[in-house]
């Protein structure tokens, strides 16, 4: 399935999969504090770790040698959910899979590099670090992996690059470091599907185009070998859908590698051949040096196979573009094949070789030999069929071990020299030069140390760096290997994937809170930071090394010599729940230049309600931290299975109980109570026939049966419910005890319990009445044959009492009994599918749901769920949260609306009544123009003086009639059009003219702002008959569409900002979809399609088109026509769609304006008084919460109504016709009108400009 839903609701659904996200103390970009002039370092009593090769004492690295530190976005940035970022697979895995990360930590906060990068770069500059190699977060740029760009994320990286350049630090950028957007796993399985190649290409293309002038070295992929020891262990089918039967293991590993290399190659080809990039491009390999354990041929083959299945797997750029023969021979059909064109694409796609070379091993033949292993897929050593060990042949360890949490890492400095030579002379002789893109060491048990004196002397790490650098230099000097760079891992202590925060690769002491989050970068530098070897030229005066996270992305495959069993380093499966929401959103403009480095960006969108005090920065130029309040976004996680499944989501959603904003089926009007009882005896006020509910005695004195004219029992029971809703359970119990009234009778309570416990036969019997409790219940869910027991952790089921007669509960008038049964049996069916009892589920579908003769489309949707491969897949496909979620509560909420209110009080009744009171106040208050809820303490009224009724400004820049005007979406600009052929754009703060667009040769009748307000479409009348697209920042015309032979009447942008619809009076080109290249990509075909006006709903689901006497409604996603309404004796002139995408406002001749339902065409309200007989007069929604309708008129006035039809004012406005009106989208105190008198009038309150 293809995802086209990029709405805020869809993003919230993705974060719901992840779960709660922690917020760090810093929530806005921090300006750097001054760095110290010098740093403390080892002194008199202990020397630094020396170089062991005295011959190289005076030899320096080559002048063009690049060196610095590296990091990755997920591991150091934090701000996991802030500023529009989407979740990555690692957000999901680290939150949802217990112990997937050894210490159960996440990347939510870590080093907070997202907000502290300025301080971090100041530190690098002060230390003399000339280069920094970060990665860019794919889901921070594209929250869904594709679709709209997250402007805030782009602005962040704009500033990161600008800040690096400002500090003289060379950026060397990795485009992808394992943080695949979660949305792509949900949509098609990510790296196991070919679609990932194009989605990754589009992301990489966007980033490179934006930053290539500042970046001369690009890495497309970090360590594609992760497809083995990480990706193949992802829990597909458990925490997100498994597509094409790929759930992990060898198949997943090699599909991932296949598409990863193709993605790299596609980007590299484009970079050089089309984009003509200024720099170089490659990808970072993960590999280790292998020394044969003996001189035997078998051990030499083992060494080669270790290479083949690691770096040889991705060696195609340096060979023929294909896999090594050993992989093909061993894997057979498990290994995807490259076509000849794909091999040609891969071959030569790297400009240099990049290796993350951390360690070395001995290689040996596996037990039984390579042939026996390679022919047996169940062999534990398959498919490598080669062993590796971390001990010398005589049993001594190959070098000092690092922290046990990264057991694959040993300090083996001579191995890096041998490895560099082996790569460039044996494995891939065509390599022109090679960069060591990562190397680093985790000091053993450092995370457990609390004494800083112990931490500062990190001798093993210091030894590692000194001797690895010695051997890199030796490789250049002695072996003549063209090593052109080296990058130490890493800039901060960070989340080291499966090892979490428990291991430290950093070169600074991290200051941490008890939860392990790294808050500041202190000034205390470890001994490993001060190597005595001479630094490269131009940096000899600096102590050149690194700041801190804790990583190493390179688990090595190591086989124990005693067991001959292959062990994979600590990278294991992870996962998460699935929910959904829908509705597209706008896209950000992607064609802006990099801004200057700024001190602040807007704050996080995930702030907590309270503020806390700021942490003080260290006296040595540490990372300052501040506590800022955060707000968190909510999400709708409901199920949609009925015929509305393809419809847009309700926006804004209606708030219901139990955490849901949507019911499981269509609503029924339940306002009346049934007269009489179709089931015989029923409960009264929730009681059985013999059940007494309440009394009228207090303190021994009788109480009246009414309370200020209201029924005492009703008031009391509503108060009991409300006290419970408020959380005052003790008070509710006390009121029950004193009044003698209960909230509901025992049968209602039993029914509620049956639904919440999933006792569907009992629930139906209690609700509808029966002589047998299993009547209509069908297949059960209880333990035993055909059931699946208590799998959901609900409370213990009550035993089933013997059969007895019950008359059922009284239903509300108009309740549909079959529909209620359908809802319950649908839930039952889904729970059986969730428990994987497919046979019982099929019986429910055939024997219980189908005979109810409900919507066939809903039945088809339900039957398709039989194909789901797992419970998680079911939840995702059904958009349902399972029996253990809120689905039963949601079902109960919906069923309660069909039960008589006298039996089961509707939920939150007092709150509903209070809302009705406030709504009544507001509807009767002509001038209510605020979104704030009125106080209950006093009756509500608004003053006329607080309503925008006065002309506060006239704009006189047009020379002829002004026909149209529209505010930008953010309200900062106003565009007006005129018969004089011009479009004027104003700044709405000062109302100064920003641009006069004067290239049209005819009158301009319409404009449409792009979703991000960076572009504007203008539509011209005859004789020009064209549409132009403008850049609103520069005022330049980007392109003109001039294929029309009749007037262009209207235009509307798609929410993604990449396409737009143009309407015309030209019957050959009446309605078409165009892209930003000025190309028509779709055309709607209808007879005599002369478009007068059109609009796209804000949720992106509907396109509404006005012809002279007909209204067409299309599904904008599928292009299918949904509805058509013909209106006689009128001429339709304009349309506006409400912000919630439910309603449309249609102006028409003669003198009519109608508010209509967008899906049914039902007329909800009519507005009268204005004059419209000959000309195009436009109306609009406006005011706070769109509570008003405003229209121009041929009688020179502006008419304002409340949406209930009450006329508020008729204002004298212009001389001649008032052609159009527009209400400010952000400030309800302002609106504007356009008239025949060449003027634009601004309306506000008296002191608006004071």
From TrEMBL:
Stretch list, region Disordered: 529-707
Stretches with biased composition (Low complexity): 557-569, 615-624, 646-665
Gene3D superfamilies on file: Glycosidases (3.20.20.80), YVTN repeat-like/Quinoprotein amine dehydrogenase (2.130.10.10)
A Pfam family this chain is assigned to: Glyco_hydro_1
CDD domains: WD40
Sorted UniProt keywords: Hydrolase, Repeat, WD repeat
Any one Gene Ontology BP term: carbohydrate metabolic process
Polar residues: compositionally biased ranges: 577-598, 683-699
Signal sequence annotation: none
A GO molecular function held by the record: hydrolase activity, hydrolyzing O-glycosyl compounds
Name this protein carries in UniProt: Glycoside hydrolase family 1 protein
Gene source species: Glonium stellatum
């Amino acid at each position: 399935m293809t995802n086209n839903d990029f709405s805020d609701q869809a993003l919230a659904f993705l974060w719901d999969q992840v779960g709660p996200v922690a917020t760090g103390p810093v929530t806005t970009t921090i300006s750097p504090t001054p760095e110290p002039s010098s740093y403390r370092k080892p002194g008199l009593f202990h020397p630094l770790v020396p170089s062991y090769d005295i011959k190289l004492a005076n030899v320096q690295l080559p002048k063009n040698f690049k060196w610095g530190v590296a990091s990755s976005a997920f591991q150091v940035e934090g701000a996991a959910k802030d500023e529009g970022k989407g979740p990555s697979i690692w957000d999901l895995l680290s939150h949802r899979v217990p112990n997937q990360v050894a210490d159960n930590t996440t990347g939510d906060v870590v080093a907070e590099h997202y907000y502290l990068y300025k301080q971090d770069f100041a530190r690098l500059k002060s230390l003399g670090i000339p280069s920094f190699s970060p990665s860019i977060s794919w889901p921070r740029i594209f929250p869904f992996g594709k679709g709209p760009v997250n402007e805030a994320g782009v602005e962040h990286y704009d500033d990161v690059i600008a800040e690096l350049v400002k500090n003289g630090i060379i950026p060397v950028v990795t485009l992808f470091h394992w943080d695949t957007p979660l949305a792509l796993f949900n949509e098609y399985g990510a790296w196991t599907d070919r679609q990932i190649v194009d989605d990754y290409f589009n992301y990489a293309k966007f980033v490179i185009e934006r930053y290539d002038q500042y970046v001369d070295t690009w890495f497309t992929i970090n360590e594609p070998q992760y497809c083995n020891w990480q990706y193949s262990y992802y829990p597909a089918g458990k925490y997100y859908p498994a597509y094409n039967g790929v759930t992990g293991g060898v198949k997943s590993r090699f599909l991932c590698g296949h598409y990863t290399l193709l993605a790299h190659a596609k980007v590299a080809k484009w970079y050089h051949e089309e984009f003509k990039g200024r720099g170089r491009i490659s990808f970072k390999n993960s590999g280790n040096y292998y020394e044969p354990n003996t001189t035997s041929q078998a051990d030499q083959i083992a060494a080669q196979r270790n290479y083949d299945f690691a770096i040889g797997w991705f060696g195609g750029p340096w060979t023929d573009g294909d896999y090594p023969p050993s992989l093909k021979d061993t894997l057979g059909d498990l290994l995807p094949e490259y076509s000849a064109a794909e091999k040609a694409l891969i071959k030569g796609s790297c400009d240099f070789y990049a290796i993350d070379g951390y360690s070395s091993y001995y290689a040996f033949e596996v037990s039984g030999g390579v042939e026996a292993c390679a022919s047996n897929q169940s062999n534990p050593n398959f498919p490598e069929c080669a062993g590796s060990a971390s001990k010398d042949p005589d049993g001594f360890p190959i070098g000092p071990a690092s922290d046990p949490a990264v057991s694959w890492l040993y300090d083996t400095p001579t191995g890096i020299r041998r490895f560099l030579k082996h790569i460039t002379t044996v494995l891939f002789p065509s390599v022109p030069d090679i960069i060591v893109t990562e190397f680093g060491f985790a000091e053993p048990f450092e995370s457990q140390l609390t004494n800083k004196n112990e931490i500062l002397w990190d001798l093993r790490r210091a030894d590692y760096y000194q001797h690895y650098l010695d051997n890199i230099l030796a490789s250049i000097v002695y072996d003549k290997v063209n090593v052109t760079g080296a990058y130490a891992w890493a800039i901060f202590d960070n989340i080291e994937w499966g090892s979490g925060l428990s291991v430290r690769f950093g070169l600074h002491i991290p200051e941490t809170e008890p939860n392990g989050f790294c808050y500041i970068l202190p000034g205390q530098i470890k001994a490993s930071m001060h190597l005595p070897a001479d630094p490269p030229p131009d940096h000899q005066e600096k102590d050149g090394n690194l700041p801190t996270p804790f990583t190493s992305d390179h688990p090595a495959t190591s086989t124990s010599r005693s067991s001959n069993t292959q062990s994979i380093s600590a990278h294991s499966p992870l996962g998460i729940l699935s929910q959904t929401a829908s509705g597209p959103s706008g896209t950000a403009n992607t064609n802006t230049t990099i801004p200057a480095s700024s001190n602040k960006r807007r704050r996080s969108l995930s702030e907590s309600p309270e503020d806390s005090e700021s942490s003080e920065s260290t006296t040595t130029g540490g990372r300052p931290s501040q506590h800022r309040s955060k707000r968190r976004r909510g999400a709708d996680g409901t199920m949609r299975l009925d015929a509305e499944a393809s419809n847009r989501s309700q926006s804004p959603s209606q708030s219901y109980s139990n955490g849901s904003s949507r019911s499981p089926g269509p609503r029924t009007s339940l306002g009346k109570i049934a007269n009489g009882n179709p089931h015989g005896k029923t409960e009264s006020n929730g009681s059985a026939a013999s059940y007494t509910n309440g009394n009228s005695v207090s303190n021994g004195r009788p109480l009246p049966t009414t309370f200020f004219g209201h029924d005492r029992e009703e008031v009391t029971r509503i108060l009991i419910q409300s006290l419970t809703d408020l959380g005052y359970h003790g008070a509710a119990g006390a009121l029950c005890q004193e009044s003698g009234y209960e909230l509901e009778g025992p049968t209602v309570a039993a029914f509620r319990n049956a639904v919440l416990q999933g006792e569907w036969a009992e629930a139906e019997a209690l609700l509808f009445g029966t002589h047998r409790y299993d009547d209509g219940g069908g297949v059960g869910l209880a333990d035993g044959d055909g059931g699946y027991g208590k799998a959901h952790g609900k409370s213990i089921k009550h035993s089933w009492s013997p059969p007895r007669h019950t008359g059922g509960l009284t239903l509300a008038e108009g309740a549909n009994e079959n529909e209620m049964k359908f809802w319950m049996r649908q839930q039952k069916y889904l729970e059986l599918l969730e428990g994987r009892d497919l046979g019982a589920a099929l019986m429910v579908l055939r024997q219980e749901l189908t005979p109810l003769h409900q919507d066939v489309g809903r039945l088809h949707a339900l039957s398709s769920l039989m194909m789901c491969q797992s419970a998680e897949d079911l939840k995702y496909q059904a958009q349902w949260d399972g029996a253990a979620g809120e689905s039963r509560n949601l079902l109960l909420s919906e069923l309660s609306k069909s039960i008589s209110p006298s039996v089961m009080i509707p939920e939150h009744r007092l709150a509903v009544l209070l809302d009705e009171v406030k709504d009544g106040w507001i509807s009767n208050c002509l001038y209510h123009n605020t979104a704030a809820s009125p106080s209950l303490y006093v009756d509500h009224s608004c003053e006329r003086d607080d309503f925008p009724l006065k002309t506060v400004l006239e704009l006189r820049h047009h020379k002829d009639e002004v026909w149209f005007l529209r505010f930008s979406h953010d309200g900062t600009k106003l565009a007006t059009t005129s018969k004089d052929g011009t479009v004027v754009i104003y700044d709405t703060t000062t109302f100064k003219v920003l641009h006069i667009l004067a290239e049209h040769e005819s009158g301009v009748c319409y404009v449409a702002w792009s979703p991000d307000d960076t572009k504007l479409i203008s539509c011209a009348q005859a004789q020009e008959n064209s549409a132009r697209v403008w850049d609103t920042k520069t005022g330049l015309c980007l392109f003109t569409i001039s294929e029309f032979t009749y007037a262009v009447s209207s235009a509307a942008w798609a929410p993604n900002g990449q396409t737009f619809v143009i309407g015309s009076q030209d019957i050959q080109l009446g309605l078409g979809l165009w892209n930003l290249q000025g190309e028509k990509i779709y055309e709607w075909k209808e007879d005599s399609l002369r478009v007068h006006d059109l609009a796209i709903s804000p949720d992106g689901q509907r396109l509404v088109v006005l012809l002279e006497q007909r209204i067409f409604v299309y599904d904008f996603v599928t292009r299918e026509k949904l509805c058509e309404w013909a209106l006689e004796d009128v001429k339709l002139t304009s349309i506006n769609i409400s912000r919630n995408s439910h309603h449309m406002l249609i102006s028409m001749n003669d003198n009519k304006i109608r508010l209509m339902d967008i899906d049914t065409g039902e007329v909800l309200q009519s507005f009268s008084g204005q004059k419209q007989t000959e000309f195009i007069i436009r109306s609009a929604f406006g005011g706070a919460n769109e509570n008003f309708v405003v229209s121009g008129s041929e009688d020179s006035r502006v008419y304002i109504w409340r949406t209930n039809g009450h006329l508020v004012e008729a204002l004298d406005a212009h001389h001649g016709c008032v052609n159009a009106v527009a209400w400010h989208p952000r400030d309800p105190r302002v609106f504007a009108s356009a008239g025949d008198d060449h003027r634009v009038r601004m309306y506000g309150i008296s002191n608006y400009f004071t």
